[in-house]
Amino acid sequence: MKPLSVFFILWIVFLTPCRTAESAKSEETPDGAAAEGTGTSNLPPDPFGDVTLTAKAPDFTRKVDRTRGTFVIEAKEGTYVPGSHFANWAWTLKAPRWGNYYAGLIYDSVRPKLGVQLKVGNEATLKSYAPRTNPVGENPPLVLGTVYLPATGEYPMTLLTGDQSNVPAFNVKGIHFRPAPESEPHGQSIDGTVQLDAKSATTYAEALRYEPKPEKNCLGFWKLEEDWAEWVFDVSVPGKFEVVLHYGSGAGDVGNRAAILLNEHTLEFDIADTGGFQNWKELKLGTVELNTKGVNKLAIVPVALKGKALMDVQKVMLHPVK
What we know:
The protein folds into two domains: 71-179, Galactose-binding domain-like (Jelly Rolls); 194-320, Jelly Rolls (Sandwich). Mean pLDDT is 88; it is low at 6-37. It is 6% helix and 47% strand. It has helices spanning 3-15, 21-27; strands at residues 71-74, 79-82, 87-95, 99-109, 113-120, 126-131, 142-149, 153-161, 166-167, 170-179, 194-197, 202-204, 209-211, 218-220, 228-235, 239-249, 257-262, 265-270, 276-290, 294-304, 312-320. Strands 1, 4, 7, 9 and 10 form a five-stranded antiparallel β-sheet that branches. Strands 2-3-8-5-6 form a five-stranded antiparallel β-sheet, with no helix packed on it. Strands 12-15-20-17-18 form a five-stranded antiparallel β-sheet, with no helix packed on it. By secondary structure, it is mainly beta.
């Protein structure tokens, strides 16, 4: 053999890696799994590996009615005028009380989607696309946005649809109104305090409502024992909190009693006369522990209404307890 050929063979042998028992074991690992102790793998990362379930705050200890204060204007109460490539509905809305509402479309559809536009009074037009509905079971209303009704009484209401909308392919059944808060609640402040103003409450009510006048800025007209208010708010740092109610009560309204429902906690209290509905007083109701990071809920519900009105509520404060 020539010297050059010998040199070439030795060079090939030198560059070929040795197949040790350890490497053989690694190659025999099924499905490309990582070798023990190496922490490596050729499998793609799990896209849901870091996803954790969001903790849910416990429910109230008492039943509440979140349908109270809702109302529906049915399609048959209005007039329908078809066009070549659109259709118009028209109603007269009789508002039972003033306030902010979620407006939702009740309909059935087998179409992929259809453009809709709702206008109530002088409010801005609410625009959306109505997707295909589920043919099995009842579909919730399609929320188009919020509508503010500044007073009780009558309002013109119109619905424009992008095609015929009283036919099997797309059938309007009515407009659904549900109480809505007038603003979003503040998040938990840097010092841990949670402030729940009256305007950020949802009033599930027929009389109770938010009163926006500067001298009031409160929940008022609490004349019915079935009416109640709820705040939905975020807690970024759970812990113990002192619950403080800022309220006013008129002269002669004695014997009223209410409860604050805060997740699984219930705090009942007597409502003392403060000398006037806008004569605000603080009432410390005790300390509770909130263990859920994220969405929490607080409600005020009447327990006994003996006077003309339960009380006016300016705000509820949650002060962290160190």
